[in-house]
Every structure is written in C-alpha cells, then in structure tokens.
C-alpha cells in the first residue's frame, strides 16, 4: 500500500478537529450535572496513560500504521481475526457518527428532507476528499481548524450577560460518583477515540516524536472542551441542558445582544459540521484501509464508495430518532468502547514491546 506523508502540525490539527467536532452540540459529561466541567478535567487525567500507550505503539514501529503493526506482532492468521474486529468497530462507529449528523441537519435545518439525503451528501463529500489522499484532508484541516476556536471565543464573549454562576455551584453537590460517571463518559468519547489515528498515521515529513502529536492535540482539544462545557452550564444550567436534544445549539439561540447579534446558531452548526466532516472522513479511511489490509489489496481508494454505500445503509436504520441515539451513546457506548479503545491497545502495546527487538 502506498505510504501517505503528512507533517506533525497537520497531524495535530486533524486530531483536534476530530476531537472537538461532536462536542459542538452536546455537553460532555452531562451526567455529572453541575459538575460536568469537573468531569472533563478528571477525564483528561484518566486518559493520559492511554495517550502514552497510543504514542508508544507508534514509537515502537516507526513508519508503520496499526494494521502493519498488528501483523508484525501477531502473525498473519491472528492478525486477520483482529482486523475483522477492528473493521466491525469502525463500520458501526462511522455509521453511528453519520446518522448523528444526518439527524442534526434534519432537526435543525431541513425537517422535510429525508435524513438519508443529508447523510449521503456528507458521505460523498468525505469520499471525494479521501480519493485525493490523506494529504488533502490534512491540508484542509490545517486551515479550517481555527474556525471552531474563533466561534468559541465569539460565543463566550456574547453570552457573558446571560451566564449564571449559580448553575455550577455548589461543587460536588451530589457527591463524587456522578463526577466519575461523567468523566468515564468523556473518557470514552471523544478522548480515547483518538486511538483511531494509530490506523491513519505512519509516515511524517519530520521524524518528530509521536508523543508530541498526541499530547499537544489532547491539550488543545481539552481546553476547547472544558471552556465549551462551562459556557453551556453557565448559560443553560443542568436541568435545561438535560432536557434538550441539542443543548449547545439551543444555548447559542439564547444569545441576543442589542438585537444585533442574534440567531447565530448557524455558527455552532458550522463547528459541528466541520468536525463531523473530518471525523467521518477519518473513520471511512480507517475502514477502507482495514479492508484493504485484510484482503491484501494494493490501494484503498477504489473501496471508498462501495464501503460508503454499506455505511449509509446501516446508518439509515440504526436509530429511529435523536432520543434513541442519545440513549445508546450515553448509556451503552461508554462500555461498548472498552474492548476496542482500551483493552486492545494495551494488548498490542504489550506484544509490540516484545516484538520490536526482533523487528529491529
């Protein structure tokens, strides 16, 4: 398979956009109530060991992606089984993400348009970019990564007058257990989800440490998520946020400064769509690369559109409505992800530590 090379800076910005996308309409760790912002901080402490594991896997086998590392560590037969597990994981995940964006567009903007149309347009755009290679997506992210942060700063300033500090006080009002539950939710998504980039990254233009890529992107994305969570809690409060399908979208709708700055929820939607475009593209890329490796094809590009059609088919009936989507992602996903984003990387790291000496 042809190697695709991106710079360290491009890799960092890809991870940032991937991480902040889904948080642009939901409030991370909302199960912690008023302490959701504390749950975000705890989650970032929890995820640090996993980030070091992801980076170490790369460091053990420079110029190799996860699929190649798995074959080196486990041999051809066992690696095929692991590849099948990863392929299912990414197939279900990208379908889950795609339907989220299809539902959002339908609910907030195009209620009379079937959501499958919204999903199809976004999926085709992602495939079109990936046909040009990961370098094109990386260059695109290098420019557009600043937009969500500019929007976040603008929303923060415009919403100051409608913030209420009592919405986050008192701290630990319900004890520490809700904080840990909320932290586990944030830990599962989006933080450990960046494991998927071990399948994407192999070669960089400079031989910088993989630790820098993961830790820098985690820090920047973490600051964004923390500020975003605080703004939503300060404006909406725990009860209002829990009662809404898209709390962040409704939070921005409340902004009205002198009847000049109002109805700016389109900006929040822009952040969400930009992040979603990157997230769906990365997951489609990983899925295509996994199938390519499984069947020993030379290139993944010819698989993009057939796989996209399969994903679109699953996504079209995965959830009946937004409530079903939120129930699964709030109650089931935090446990569903464990074998793929925590247990599997730990096993791969353990075997790679043994195999790397023989490989070198």
UniProtKB/TrEMBL annotation:
Q: Which protein are we looking at? A: Spore germination protein KB
Q: Where in or outside the cell?
A: Membrane
Q: Which GO terms describe its biological process?
A: spore germination
Question: What Gene3D superfamilies is this protein classified in?
Answer: Amino acid/polyamine transporter I
Q: Which family does it belong to?
A: Belongs to the amino acid-polyamine-organocation (APC) superfamily. Spore germination protein (SGP) (TC 2.A.3.9) family.
Per the record, membrane topology reads: Multi-pass membrane protein
Annotated InterPro entries: Spore_GerAB
Q: Which domain of life is it from?
A: Bacteria
One cellular component term (GO) for this entry is: membrane
Keywords in alphabetical order? Germination, Membrane, Transmembrane, Transmembrane helix, Transport
Transmembrane annotation, as ranges: 12-31, 37-57, 77-95, 115-131, 143-163, 183-201, 213-236, 270-288, 300-320, 332-351
